[in-house]
Design goal:
mainly alpha
Length: about 120
């Protein structure tokens, strides 16, 4: 069933001009009207400016640690460009996704004792 839903042509998926039309129609009799008709909202992301500062700090620490497990994966020029631009991590989740992923991968590699031979 799920595969069928993913293969549904786009014009059918938005047959009433809204996102998730098929899903809305399928559950219309199961959910309150206010839920079925509410506007889609993106997943929650932090808008706290402190988060961007912490992320910048973690990226700086990662760049300064030549023994970091993910050191070989870092585009140092790109990372420095991010750090040189004070607004680079303040514009929502898309601007932070690469830095978050790098920090998370480094943490995972460190926590599990994995070393990369690149």
């Amino acid at each position: 069933m799920l595969q069928y839903a993913f293969n549904t042509p786009w014009d059918m998926q938005i047959f009433d001009g809204r996102e998730k039309s098929v899903l809305r129609a399928a559950v219309a009799d199961l959910l309150p009207k206010s839920v079925v008709e509410r506007k889609k909202s993106p997943f929650p992301v932090s808008v706290d400016p402190t988060y961007a500062k912490v992320l910048r700090s973690e990226l700086t620490e990662l760049l300064d640690d030549p023994g970091a497990p993910a050191a070989a994966l870092i585009d140092r020029e790109g990372a420095r460009a991010v750090l040189d631009d004070p607004e680079s991590l303040a514009n929502g989740w898309r601007s932070r996704a690469n830095v978050e992923m790098l920090v998370q991968v480094n943490t995972w590699l460190r926590d599990y004792g994995i070393r990369l031979d690149i």
